[in-house]
Design a protein that fits this description.
The complex is a heterodimer of chains A (504) and B (347).
Chain A: E1 7-16, E2 19-29, E3 34-38, H1 45-53, E4 60-65, E5 68-70, H2 75-80, E6 83-86, H3 98-102, H4 117-130, H5 146-159, E7 164-168, H6 176-191, E8 195-199, H7 203-209, E9 212-217, E10 220-226, H8 232-240, E11 263-270, E12 274-281, E13 286-291, H9 297-304, E14 312-317, E15 320-321, H10 327-332, E16 335-338, H11 342-346, H12 353-358, E17 366-367, E18 370-371, H13 373-386, H14 403-415, E19 421-425, H15 433-448, E20 452-456, H16 460-466, E21 469-474, E22 477-483, H17 489-497
Parallel strand pairs in A: 3-8, 3-9, 6-7, 7-8, 13-20, 13-21, 16-19, 19-20
Antiparallel strand pairs in A: 1-2, 1-4, 4-5, 9-10, 11-12, 11-14, 14-15, 17-18, 21-22
Chain B: H1 10-15, H2 29-42, H3 45-62, H4 69-94, H5 102-119, H6 124-149, H7 153-172, E1 177-178, H8 182-189, E2 191-192, E3 195-196, H9 197-215, H10 217-227, H11 229-234, H12 239-265, E4 267-268, H13 276-286, H14 298-317, H15 325-346
Antiparallel strand pairs in B: 1-4, 2-3
Helix pairs in contact in B: 3-14, 4-9, 4-12, 4-13, 4-14, 5-6, 5-7, 5-12, 6-7, 6-12, 8-12, 9-10, 10-12, 13-14, 13-15, 14-15
Classes of the chains: A alpha/beta (504), B mainly alpha (347).
């Protein structure tokens, strides 16, 4: 290596009881370089970042910054070395404004020792303008969307002259448009000589910005590649250590186009976010609701499920109109709902997997309101097995499972009810590549059994990969329907952003 | 049956793919017994049970009065009366709420029992039913405001704490009511098979509550709401209904305890139940319940209640001034929770 490196990590090893989370990992980042770190969940990415951030101490190995050995022992120390880490959960105070957040811990004072709000606002404004972002420094952070909050976090990092910004899956809750803004910002940082360590699952983003890619598997580096000379497929293969069969799977049973729709939604309205939305799904068909975040897709789905109040329109399951005052009514009509936010809306993290799976089916396994634990265990095991969960996982608490397995638990809960209509809101968010393929296959299998499936997705490749038909929503309106065959990323994106409108 | 050691095999569980482990559906009775023993030993409550047992053994040596029938009756009755309230509190804490009004509810129901039975001269049975129904009403109000208006239970029940206490003082102008019929007094003072009636009632209440929480759909729903309210809602659970029911259970059990205490003391008094809410919360928390909801159980609460009251009794028997008792209770509550957190971390 002739070029100087900014950050070098050598032989980093971290052991936990029973697991070696990191096994002699090397990582080097040059000034002004975007280094992507990829790997499946559990590959050790987060642990590596935490070592760099000073949140945990490695058992072996050392870190060099600009060629000097540093012993990073605390997050404060890491910051002092010019390392800024942006975690998935942003470290911002929602009740404070943008300027106050940027200057938190480094507040400017007036001569009298009071806070100098004006100087901080001016500074924040200049900093944000330098990043090409237009947010008022007086905005409350709680009122910003996630993409904008990330910008604030980046601005905060630059205030302390960070020489390397570490981003842990920054785009997991961004829409395609917001992702572009973030990527543009990263290119800007690179021009200014700031290095970026970018952790992500998404090959497209990585190939859009990364100079080099470090691939982790099972706590060890399996390769460092040049983004220019390696194909995405090769990287994915290194990640999973095996050949990826077609990620999205193929339809095995054709949809019976003459069947009557399992779900019909007519002119649905709800609050300010859903206006006059209509669609229908045939048994066995997969309809994807595409659009930007905030387009009203989740709200529309929650309304169909009775969890959000309906202002107008009709919802019919199997031709019968539903009153839909509560989720339990929708469930009785045969609708299942896999919510977007697994941790906050889906799982009972502290309770066993068994109880999570049976939670929506208690009446069927109890008599006179008394639960038969034997039937419950049988039910949980049956569906755990069907979804490829280990049977020994049935009694552990749901919070200990990986993202992909947690999603299977939620799926199992709804499959146990034998639904006619299954709604899945962002079913693969926070799930690694291997588990993604499994979940797509499960969705295919569910549809093949005649269930009408409604998927909400913000990932264009996913939308195009699994949909039979696509309904694009924008600002609360259904702006157009596409058959999978006619759809392209450009067309869907155009409709979602309103650049071109195609009404089928 | 596979033996789950609660924490031992997380890695296996997270691995996800691979072949399912060998299962032996028809394990021998010996194996099952062994598994049961292990589960008992590793259960959250076993440490606490050990502490309570040690305390009992220590006290029976340290004080000649501890094991006397007289003292046992007194302690048993106290534990019984407190346990009935703590059981109700456990339901509320399990949904992630808190009920600060149980002590005041005891006072109001105590006064109302006197009003119905002594002042109005209603038959004891009718008076008791009316008194407990009034107590339940407190729960209806608490639960409805909490669930439908959305005010946090801490605030709602803090308000009710003042209101119910004020009502009981207002109704009686601050004085006590005595002159209860003897057949009513038997309820709080009498014994059956040498065991005080309140202990029998508390045992029935605790066993019933344990059964409801562990075996019924309602109990499951209580845990779901406490574990993740949003997920519960999206699983079709009528969250608001569960919340109201839980507050009604808490207030009704406080009312039941109030009736028994009134009978024990032969007097209805507006000063009754002072500080009972803290005792009940402490008991549940010592028993392993989480104030964030979703974690806890009746067995733990029963042990927690016993521990707190045994220590009170011990301090009296060992001749330590009553003024110091609260200091001990406070320290023990915090220490127990610290111990629990430490255990969790180690696992």
């Amino acid at each position: 290596m002739t070029e100087p490196t900014l950050i070098s990590m050598y032989g980093i090893t971290k052991r936990y009881p029973g697991v070696t989370a990191l096994n002699s990992v090397n990582l080097s980042v040059k000034p002004g370089e975007v280094m992507a770190i990829v790997g499946e969940n559990g590959a050790g990415k987060s642990t590596l970042l935490k070592v760099l951030a000073g949140a945990i101490n490695a058992d072996e190995g050392h870190i060099e910054v600009s060629g000097e050995i540093v012993n990073i022992t605390s997050p404060r120390h890491s910051q002092a070395c010019g390392i800024a880490v942006m975690y998935q959960e942003l470290n911002l105070a929602n009740d404070l404004n943008v300027a106050e957040n940027i200057y938190v811990g480094r507040e400017l004072k007036t001569r009298f020792g009071t806070l100098d709000f004006r100087a901080m606002e001016r500074g924040a404004k200049a900093l944000l303008a330098g990043l090409g972002i237009e947010i008022s420094p007086r905005q409350l952070v709680g009122n910003l969307n996630i993409a904008m909050r990330q910008m604030v976090e980046i601005a905060k990092a630059l205030l302390v002259d960070a020489r390397v910004v570490v981003m842990d899956e920054p785009t997991s809750s961004l829409t395609e448009g917001e992702v572009e803004t973030l990527l543009a910002l990263i290119r800007r940082l690179r021009q200014q000589g700031v290095s970026v360590v970018y952790v992500s699952h998404r090959m497209r983003e990585i190939y859009a910005i990364a100079d080099r890619i470090t691939v982790l598997r099972d706590g060890a580096v399996v390769g460092v590649c040049d983004a220019l000379s390696t194909t995405p497929n090769e990287v994915v293969q290194m990640m999973v250590g095996r050949e990826l069969v077609d990620l999205y799977g193929l339809r095995s049973v054709p949809v019976n186009l003459h069947a009557s729709p399992a779900l019909e939604v007519r002119s649905l309205s709800s609050g300010t976010l859903v206006h006059d939305v209509s669609f229908s799904i045939l048994p066995g068909e997969i309809l994807v609701l595409a659009g930007l975040i905030g387009a009203g897709r989740s709200r529309a789905a929650l309304t169909v499920f009775g969890a959000v109040k309906r202002k107008g329109g009709e919802i019919l399951v199997g031709g019968k109109a539903l009153a839909l005052r509560s989720p339990s009514e929708a469930m009785d009509a045969g609708i299942g709902f896999v919510a977007e936010d697994r941790k906050n809306q889906g799982l009972f993290l502290g309770l066993p997997v068994r109880e999570n799976i049976s939670s929506a089916s208690l009446p069927s396994i109890s008599r006179m309101a008394i639960i038969s634990v034997a039937s419950e265990r049988k039910l949980a095991r049956h569906f755990a097995g069907q979804l490829g969960l280990r049977l020994s996982a049935v009694e552990v608490t749901a919070g200990t499972l990986s993202g992909g397995n947690q999603q299977k638990v939620v799926l199992a809960r709804w499959l146990a009810r034998k639904p006619r209509v299954l709604i899945l809101d962002e079913p693969t968010r926070g799930v690694d590549v291997g588990a993604k393929a499994e979940i797509y296959q499960l969705i295919r299998d569910i549809a093949a059994e005649g269930v009408a499936v409604l998927v909400i997705s913000s990932e264009l490749t996913e939308v195009l990969g699994i949909a039979d038909r696509i309904l694009v929503m924008r600002e609360g309106y259904g702006v157009g329907e596409l058959d999978a065959g006619d759809a392209s990323e450009k067309r869907v994106m155009g409709m979602a952003t309103g650049v071109q409108e195609v009404v089928a | 049956m596979t033996i789950q050691k609660m924490t031992g095999n997380q890695e296996n569980a997270t691995a996800g793919n691979g072949t399912p482990p060998l299962d032996t559906p028809s394990a021998s009775i010996g194996d099952r017994l062994k598994a049961l023993m292990w589960r008992l030993l590793l259960a959250r409550e076993s440490t606490l049970a050990g502490v309570v047992l040690l305390l009992v053994v220590y006290l029976s040596f340290a004080s000649p009065y501890f094991m006397t029938p007289g003292n046992m009756t007194v302690v048993g009755r106290q534990i019984g009366l407190a346990l009935i309230i703590s059981v109700g509190m456990t339901f509320v804490i399990l949904i992630g709420g808190i009920d600060l009004s149980v002590g005041s509810a005891v006072a109001l129901v105590s006064v109302l029992t006197g009003e119905f039975m002594v002042i109005l001269g209603l038959p004891p049975a009718v008076s008791i039913i009316l008194a407990i129904a009034s107590g339940a009403l407190i729960g209806v109000v608490n639960g409805t405001i909490n669930a439908y208006v959305g005010i946090p239970s801490f605030v709602v029940t803090l308000g009710m704490l003042a209101v119910a206490r004020g009502l009981s003082l207002g109704i009686t102008s601050g004085s006590t009511i005595s002159g209860f019929p003897p057949e009513f007094l038997y309820l709080g003072q009498g014994s059956f098979l040498n065991i005080p009636i309140p202990v029998w009632i508390a045992a029935v209440v605790a066993l019933g509550a344990h059964f409801v929480l562990t075996q019924t759909t309602f109990g499951r729903h209580v845990y779901f709401v406490g574990s993740n309210e949003e997920a519960a809602k999206l699983s079709g659970i009528q969250v608001r209904r569960i919340k109201v029911t839980v507050f009604v259970i808490s207030a009704s059990l406080a009312a039941l305890s109030a009736v028994l205490e009134t009978s024990r003391l032969s007097v209805g008094q507006p000063a009754a139940g002072n500080g009972y809410e803290l005792l009940a919360i402490g008991a549940a928390v010592i028993g392993g319940a989480s104030l964030f909801g979703g974690v806890g159980g009746i067995l733990g609460t029963a042990l927690g209640t016993s521990l707190l009251l045994l220590i009170q009794n011990a301090l009296i028997l060992l001749g330590i001034s009553a003024y110091w008792q609260q200091v001990f209770s406070g320290v023990i509550i915090v220490a127990a929770v610290a111990l629990n957190m430490w255990r969790k971390k180690r696992n």
